[in-house]
Structure formats: structure tokens, C-alpha cells
Amino acid sequence: MEGNPLWSRRGFLGMGAGVLGAAGLAACGDGSGSSPKAPVAEVPQALLDAAASLKGTSMGMLSQKLYSTAANEALDASIRKFASATGTTIENSLVQADSGDVVAKIHAEVEGGVARDLAFMTDSRFVAQFHALGDLEDVTDVVTALTAVYGEPCAEAKNFCVFDGKWFAIPYHFIGIGSFLRKDWMQEKGITPKDVYTWEELRDLCLAISDPAKRRFGWGMTVNRSGDGNGMIEALINSYGGAIASNDGRKVTFDTPETVQAVTFLGDVYTNPKYKTMLPPGVDSWTDTSNNENWLAGVLGYTRNSFSVYADSKTKKNPVYGNTHVFSDCIGPATDKSLLLGQSQGFVVFKGAKNGALAKVLAQYLVSAPALVGVAKEAPGLAMPAWEKVWDADPFFSGGDPAFPMLRTMSQQPLPLPTKNGLSFPQKASAGQQAVVAAYVLTDMMQQVVQGTAPAQAVTAAHAKMVQIFAQQGLPQ
Q1: Euclidean distance between the first and final Cα of the chain, in Å?
Q2: Is 311 found in the same domain as 181?
Q3: Residue 389 C-beta-side C-alpha neighbours within 13 Å
Q4: Do 205 and 261 fall into the same domain?
Q5: What's the total number of domains in the chain?
Q6: Contact 149/25 with Cβ under 8 angstroms?
Q7: pLDDT in tens, 367-424
Q8: 335 and 265, same structural domain?
Q9: Model's pTM, two decimal places?
Q10: 11, 46, 169, 252: which has the highest count of C-beta atoms within 10 A?
């Protein structure tokens, strides 16, 4: 790497402390492994030069916990390498994003002047909320420099990280999201896997491959409070032509016939005795790790998840991996193709950051292929490149797994994706929508339906709660 002229000092001349120019950012993947004993990628000279004046300083970082201990350790190793090479001190702490109060806690830290300098958080779930609270610094300078070398960032990030033409989060890595079926169970029943299913087809398939006597339960999703439950419910409603809000993200539009139709369908899955045999024991009280654990235990026929569950099955050599059929989200009455966008983790610099300059240099190192590949190998599909040219910078990203091409297509697909009734996804990033999801309004609504509330009544009540939450976020209805 030292001989690569793209890592020269010229990369950041005239650019301001902490932000490299285009020439200083190119990636040079070495294909190295990510085990604790494997060497961690050297910090390029251009970044060392950018951080030279910051030697002896310190900063704090907050990392959204990945569902892979080895991936978290690989990230820590890259951070330690950077800190050692730059003569700085960096404290990295993990945060559980599905606690429901993570935004409120971090906002209080920002207001109290004790927030970490840098954090990465899922863009479609959190960035709009932090921006609406005034917690974030403008990082357009960093994104502009990265774009000049790495090409375009993942498509959905342009919607969830940009406000009034300015970037408030730096795309870090793309999070694959997918649906997973047990293809061996399907083959035993003479069912050929497909790449596209309607929700009704999926429900019937899950019933067909279930066999409680063999501990085989087809439908591996919960509507209890969880990030996965939220994601599944919202995706299904969107495919039926419903949405929490209007396309501009400002007006609650939840209470519609399309939403009621979707909620009726999903409620029937959990309440109709016909489908009882495909529901795992205790599914009504599952938390966010439950479908992961049950999938890896080999008792589920279908689940919908970030690629954490897929990554675990591959890295731990679980036989489930070889029997997994990966496909995108199901389609509904309002869609001809999946609305699945994936997500990305974005680096944010908090207002009042004591060492924002160092935070920006560290972010530029961590998005590069040499620093990211170690994390990606421990979490294949869960931590993929967020930048077009990083995909080609290490052979692991282009050929490390049969599912990777689908994820690359998802990350770079033209957006927005339309529905037949005028919705388009992604909708404009909305603090109201993100706060509604974080408050588990969707899962609470479905729990009411499971307990006997009529779907139309539950939708109307959820709509009323959403109106209150939007008002609290500065979006009165």
C-alpha cells in the first residue's frame, strides 16, 4: 500500500483539517482475513498526514451493535490500528439500537455536552430524528471528497442522510436485508424455490412445509415489539398500498382501506386456527434475537431479517447456510416488484463534538475496503460497501458469497420505487415516521389484533397515536 500514489499527501492539500481530497481516498483491497490474529490494514499515509496535527488528542465513538461478536471485534481492531498509527486515543462503545429510547438518551448527552464525537447509526431509522433535534453537524465536505474517488454512495442513503441539500451522515456500510426460506424443506414437498412471492403465496408455502412433529415451523416472524417485527409489518403494509405518512413525510396517512387490508391479512396469520401449525411456540413474545436463534437452530422455514442471521450461519458453518434460499421482500396488491431498499449505517458527528476533525478522518478510514473487509468477512451480507467503487476494491465483496450480487443491485438500484396507487419508496426522510417506528406503534397495533381487536379499529387507534407522535416531532397534523 505504501507504493500506491493515490495515498499521497496531495490528496488533502487545500481541503481543511480532517477532510481528505479525492486523490487521498482510493481503496486498495488486500483480501486479508479478519480473525484476531490476522493483520489489520495499515492506515494510509494521506490519513496519517491529515491526523498529524491531532496527535495526542482523544475522541469517543458510539457503534450500533452488530449481531456478530466477531464483526464488532473486527471493527475494534481497525479502530485500534488507526489510533495507534495516529498517536490518538479512541474509546469505542456499543449501543443497542432496538431499546426504543436510544435517540432520547443520545440527545440528552448532546444537550449536556457529553456526547461522543462520532457514531454510526442506521440511516433510515435514526438520522432524521437526530437532525430534527439539531444534534448533527453538516458533513457534506467529507461526502463530497469520498464521492470523488469512490463514486456514488448507496441509493437509499441519498434519501435518509440528506436534508436541504446537505449531508448529515456519511454512508459507512450497506446493510443487506432479505427473506430466507429453507429450500431443503421445500424440495421435500416438491416445491421449487422462486425469486418472487406474494405474501399470500409465502403464507401458504410456510404452511405446506411445516411439521410440528419434526420441530419444523414455517412462519418465523413475530409481531411482538422488535425491530424485525416493525420491519415486516411496515413492508407488508407498503406492498398493499398503505404507508405511515405521505410521500413528503409530513402527513400521517395510515388509516386507509389498503392498510386495513394488510393488517387483516397479517392478523389472520396469527389468529386463524388453519395456520396454527406453522407458528413456532412462543412467537407472540419473541424479541429481536429470537428469530435469529430459532433460524440457526433449524426450526424455522422462513424468516425476514437483516443479513446477520445469514452471516452467522455462514461464518459458524451452520448447516442451515447451505439450505438457505435467499430472496427479496414479497410483493402485494400495490406492487409489481419488491420495495426492499436495504439500509446503511451512517457516521454522524454530533454537535459540540470536541474532536470533530479526528472523527472525520477516522470515518474516512473505516469506509475504505481495507478497513471494512475484516468486518464484512465476519458479517457477510450485513456489512457490505456503501460506496460504488469499494465493491470492486476487494475480491471478497465481488465474489465472497452467492448472495452478494443481489445486495449490490439492491444498494445501487434507481430510486424511488413506485406503487400502483401513487406511493413511492423511499419516502422523504421523516422524523415523525422514524419516531413512530421507534415507539413500536406498529407492533402494538398488531398485538391488539392478535388479542381480538378488529383490524379497522386497531388501525384507527394506531393512526391517532401517530398523529400525536408527529406533532411531538414538530409536524402537527
Answers
A1: 56
A2: yes
A3: 13
A4: yes
A5: 2
A6: yes
A7: 999 999 999 999 999 999 999 999 999 999 999 999 999 999 999 999 999 999 999 9
A8: yes
A9: 0.86
A10: 169
